[in-house]
Write a structure and sequence with these properties.
Shape: globular
Distance between the termini: 9 Å
Order of helices and strands: EHHEHEHEEE
Structural class: alpha+beta
Helix content: 40-55%
Largest sheet: 4 strands, mixed
Number of helices: 4
Mean pLDDT: 82
Strand order of the largest sheet: 1-2-4-3
Length: 137
């Protein structure tokens, strides 16, 4: 019987890392066959960078990843603050790139995310309030 390892990681562990180190941390876990569950959601641009880096690392031993997230819905003033924060972060990253300084760390959004190897996660069924994950070993 084959076993699957799950790592439940607090979003604070990921928040303490810059984006490139966060992506490396996630991919190293997943490449080792671990399914990672965290109480945070990557921002869309971070998830896109995660997918890009995954595509660079795909080979016969690592077919890729599956990602499923549920983000806490923000409404009203909180939604506006989140959008302003996203724009501010983009400007800071742009300025950091132009000046050669390191970009500041960004916090994950509230929610839940599961990231695992595509060879184990066979199907993700997502509903507005939940998701189901079918694994196969």
């Amino acid at each position: 019987m084959r076993k699957i390892k799950f790592d439940f990681v607090s979003s604070t562990v990921l928040d303490d890392k810059p984006k490139d180190k966060r992506i490396s941390f996630i991919l190293n876990k997943v490449k080792d066959g671990t399914i990672l569950v965290t109480d945070g959601v990557l921002k869309p641009n971070e998830e896109m960078d995660l997918i890009k880096e995954t595509m660079r690392r795909v080979d016969s031993g690592f077919p890729g990843i599956e990602v499923a997230s549920l983000k806490k819905e923000t409404k009203g003033l909180l939604s506006m603050v989140e959008k302003i924060s996203d724009q501010s972060e983009r400007i800071q990253n742009l300025m950091a790139g132009l000046t050669g300084k390191a970009a500041e760390k960004s916090a994950l959004r509230t929610g839940i995310t599961i990231i695992g190897p595509a060879k184990f996660i066979k199907k993700v069924k997502k509903n507005p309030d939940s998701f189901s994950v079918l694994t196969e070993v």
